[in-house]
């Protein structure tokens, strides 16, 4: 497995575009820290984002992982480009000629997806700890580590989404078309949910919807949002918890996408 992973990492490193996108992805993750410096004025009222409690433990785990999930598209481009380059440069065919089986090829891709999901999760974990200890009003150990299920959900979210992108890269063969297909899939889910109005219990099983349900938006948890809602007579009953059933759905989709990728590659004449 180490050999397979080494081969894939060399491919990414030797491709300038993939290298730049990968570095950009991790640099953007660090930009979450810059949110603390944002200030704005509403008339005589001076508001500093860091003072609104978004960096307080344990809320910061929810906030940072949610923001970070929106940045995963940068590495998604690397994933689909990685597959597109296999076809464009003939490296897939060369790997098979050199003795790599199609099963090993898919395993090598999955190991790459798994590695970057782990690295991203560790990265956001460390970043969140640093920001939290710098700005949080609560630093007791019990409070600091009380909502780490958001970190688990973040890892599963990345793993599922990158596996989906890998499948699309194999299915479509061209990075631009694969990303376009991803957008089309999203529109299809929107139509199913809001126009066709499929049953609620079915909605949670749609792949992109299942991914988004792992970490729900955190902004309405803020004290200022609750205060505004109370003044407007709106009661917030939203469930922000990470549900293990949702994690199992995404893991199931991850397995499905990898099996589909393997079967598609196995049947395809290269």
How would you characterize the overall build of this protein?
- The chain has one domain (2-38, 45-267).
- The chain is built from 13 helices and two strands; from the N terminus they run ααββααααααααααα.
- The chain has helices spanning 2-14, 16-30, 59-69, 72-88, 91-97, 102-135, 141-144, 149-172, 175-195, 200-203, 207-214, 223-231, 244-267, and strands at residues 39-42, 45-48.
- It is globular, with a radius of gyration of 21 Å.
- The chain starts with a helix and ends with a helix.
Shape, principal axes of CA atoms: globular
Give a short account of the largest sheet. Answer: 2 strands, antiparallel
Number of helices: 13
How is the largest sheet built, in terms of strand order?
1-2
Protein traits:
270 residues; 13 helices; single chain; two-stranded antiparallel sheet; globular
Fold blueprint:
Blueprint: H1 2-14, H2 16-30, E1 39-42, E2 45-48, H3 59-69, H4 72-88, H5 91-97, H6 102-135, H7 141-144, H8 149-172, H9 175-195, H10 200-203, H11 207-214, H12 223-231, H13 244-267
Antiparallel strand pairs: 1-2
Helix pairs in contact: 1-6, 2-4, 3-6, 3-8, 4-8, 4-9, 6-8, 6-13, 8-9, 8-11, 8-13, 11-13
């Amino acid at each position: 497995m180490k050999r397979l992973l080494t081969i894939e990492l060399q491919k990414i490193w030797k491709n300038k575009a993939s290298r730049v996108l990968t570095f950009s992805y991790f640099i953007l993750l660090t930009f979450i820290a810059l949110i603390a410096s944002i200030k704005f004025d509403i008339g005589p009222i001076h508001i500093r984002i860091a003072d609104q409690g978004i960096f307080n433990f344990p809320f910061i785990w929810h906030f940072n992982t949610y923001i970070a999930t929106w940045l995963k598209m940068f590495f998604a481009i690397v994933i689909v480009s990685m597959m597109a380059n296999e076809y464009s440069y003939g490296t897939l065919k060369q790997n098979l000629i050199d003795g790599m089986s199609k099963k090993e090829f898919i395993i090598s891709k999955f190991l790459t997806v798994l590695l970057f999901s782990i690295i991203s999760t560790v990265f956001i974990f460390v970043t969140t700890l640093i920001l939290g200890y710098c700005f949080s009003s609560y630093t007791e150990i019990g409070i600091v580590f009380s909502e780490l299920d958001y970190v688990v959900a973040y890892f599963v979210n990345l793993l599922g989404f990158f596996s989906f992108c890998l499948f699309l890269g194999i299915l479509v063969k061209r990075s631009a078309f694969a990303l376009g297909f991803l957008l089309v899939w999203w529109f299809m889910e929107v139509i199913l949910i809001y126009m066709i109005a499929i049953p609620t219990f079915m909605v949670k099983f749609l792949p992109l919807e299942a991914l988004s349900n792992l970490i729900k938006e955190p902004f309405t948890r803020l004290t200022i949002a609750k205060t505004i809602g109370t003044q407007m007579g709106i009661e917030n009953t939203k469930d922000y918890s990470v549900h293990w059933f949702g994690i199992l759905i995404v893991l199931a989709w991850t397995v499905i996408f990898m099996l589909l990728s393997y079967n598609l590659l196995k049947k395809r004449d290269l």
